[in-house]
Structure formats: C-alpha cells, structure tokens
From TrEMBL:
Organism lineage: Bacteria, Pseudomonadati, Pseudomonadota, Alphaproteobacteria, Hyphomicrobiales
Catalytic activity: N-terminal N-formyl-L-methionyl-[peptide] + H2O = N-terminal L-methionyl-[peptide] + formate
Native organism: Neorhizobium alkalisoli
Name of the protein this chain belongs to: Peptide deformylase
Superkingdom of this protein's organism: Bacteria
Cofactor(s), by name: Fe(2+)
This protein's UniProt keywords: Hydrolase, Iron, Metal-binding, Protein biosynthesis
Function statement: Removes the formyl group from the N-terminal Met of newly synthesized proteins. Requires at least a dipeptide for an efficient rate of reaction. N-terminal L-methionine is a prerequisite for activity but the enzyme has broad specificity at other positions.
A Pfam family assignment: Pep_deformylase
GO terms under biological process: translation
Its EC number(s): 3.5.1.88
GO molecular function, one term: peptide deformylase activity
Length: 183
C-alpha cells in the first residue's frame, strides 16, 4: 500500500531498490509459494523489499510486487518524523477474523495513483514466522489489520480492486492495460 505523504528513511546499507510489478502484469495473479527456511538470502530479500517500499514510498509490500512469488511481506506504519518500525511477516496466515468490519481508502504500489474504499474485518489474528525464524501470533486492528489483509491477499494473487465493484475494477484494469500498451 502506498503512503500518502512523502517519507524518506535511511534504513540501512547494502539494500537494493527493485522495480515494482505493475497492473496488468499477470505475475500479480500468481499464488506465492511457502518459504521453507529463514536464511541470509531470505533476509536480504526482506531488506530489499523494505528499501523498495520506503523508496516508493509505501507502508506495505508483498514479495510478488518485486516479482518474487514467495510468501513474505513487509510493513512499516511509522509516520513521518517517527523512528522506522519495519515488520517482516513470513508465511503469514490469518487464523481469526472479527465479524465487525472497518472501511479504509486503500491504494497499491502495483496500481499507482488509484484509491478506493474497501471494507474488511476490523480485527484479525495472524500467525507468521518473524525475521528471527520463530513463530509469532499477533492480533491486529486499525490500519495494521487492513494493511496485513491487503498484503496477504497479494500472496494469494488477490488485489484490492477485487473487493470493489466489478464496473470500477474493469475500468481500472482497462486504464492500466492501455497505459502498459502505450509504453
Ligand atoms: Zn498492494
């Protein structure tokens, strides 16, 4: 998901900004594969994803958005002026949804400059592996709950525009398909 105001964070060294995969690239519809182990190669991928996300700038990014179909996503909800708070979720799985919903205006780094309101469960419980290689369980609400659901959707080849009306979705896809052909 993109961040509305520009945020520039020097998070670390040795990281690479990767090109983003943009709609209608069919890669975005691919289901990502589970990760078998947390090794240095995976941690480098996580760092590259964070660097790419900060550069965009965004608050969440899934592996497939830089063309890597593996079940990993990164999130940082720190606001401008706050310390960076990078979070890495490996093989995330939603184990509980609330019945109560909440609506956020969402956007996506793979669908630049398009925003729409999406309703999702307000509170979720997510089980995942952290960058420490250990299993964690977090209960998320507010923007974190929305962002996690948006990014986990990416791991399943689902985009936020799949949650809006078919008419709106077809218009967006048409616009981006036209733009891609124009290049
Ligand atoms: Zn997205």
């Amino acid at each position: 998901m993109p961040v509305p105001s520009l945020k520039k964070i020097g998070y670390g060294e040795r990281m690479t900004i990767k090109p983003l995969i943009i709609l209608p690239d069919p890669l975005l519809r691919q289901v990502s594969a589970p990760i078998e182990r947390v090794d240095s190669e995976l941690l480098t991928l996580a760092d590259d994803m964070l660097e790419t996300m900060y550069d965009a700038p965004g608050i969440g990014l899934a592996g497939i958005q830089i063309g890597v179909p593996r079940r990993i996503l990164v999130i940082d909800l720190a606001r401008e002026g706050e310390e960076p708070a990078p979070q890495v979720f490996i093989n995330p799985e939603i184990v509980k949804f609330s019945e109560e919903g909440s609506v956020y205006e969402e956007g996506c780094l793979s669908i630049p400059e398009y925003y729409a309101e999406v309703e999702r469960p307000a509170t979720i419980t997510v089980r995942h592996i952290g960058r420490d290689g250990k299993e964690h369980v977090v209960e998320a609400d507010g923007l974190l709950a929305t962002c996690l659901q948006h990014e986990i959707d990416h791991l399943n080849g689902v985009l936020f525009i799949d949650h809006i009306s078919r008419l709106k979705r077809e218009m967006v896809i048409k616009k981006f398909t036209k733009a891609a052909k124009g290049k």
